[in-house]
Amino acid sequence: MGFLIRVLGPSAAKTYFKRLEEAERIVGQLLTLRVTSSEILHLVSSEVQIALEERDHRLEETTSLEARLMQELERAMAESERMSLKKAREQVIGELEALESRQQLVVDTIEEKDRALKAARHTVQDLLLCSEEDIRQEILRRLEFERAEEIRELESWLRDF
Question: Counting Cβ atoms within 10 Å, is residue 138 exposed (0-12), middle (13-18) or buried (19+)?
């Protein structure tokens, strides 16, 4: 230092040292700024890392939720299809039962008509074998039977009245 004062003089050396101190101060500020920026960079990196981890976690949750919702949707669709099939099956069963019922009515009607036809044939055969007088007697007997039945009904009605 003494050398610089001798060579430059006191006022030039003073300016030199002032600038040197200022340069040291600026270098110190830059070093402080560098440390601070490193800390800020480290903090920002940490925050970015945390944000990325949170994003990944939310993405996993969303993916998991989406998978669960898809399974639920598939289950609901399968259930809906199963219910539709069940309803259709019940409807077909109901229609089959109605057809069976109508079929039984037709069978019963045919059997009844068959019995009536056989009775009519039997009656016609009996009538062919009977004489005219026998037919008159049978008609009178049946009329008497019907009248007797009507009389019994009227008597019963009068007793109840």
Answer: middle
Distance of CA 96 to the CA centre of its chain: 28
In angstroms and rounded to an integer, the radius of gyration of the C-alpha atoms of the chain is 59
**Do 138 and 130 meet the contact criterion of CB atoms below 8 Å apart?**
yes
Collapsing DSSP states into helix, strand and coil, what is residue 106? helix
Instruction: Taking the CA atoms of 42, 45, 46 and 47 in sequence, report the sign of the dihedral they define.
Output: positive
pTM across the whole model = 0.38
Intra-chain end-to-end CA distance of the chain, in Å: 154
Q: CA angle, corner 61, sides to 59 and 63, nearest 5?
A: 65
Per-residue pLDDT reduced to its tens digit, 5-38: 666 666 766 777 788 889 899 998 888 877 777 7
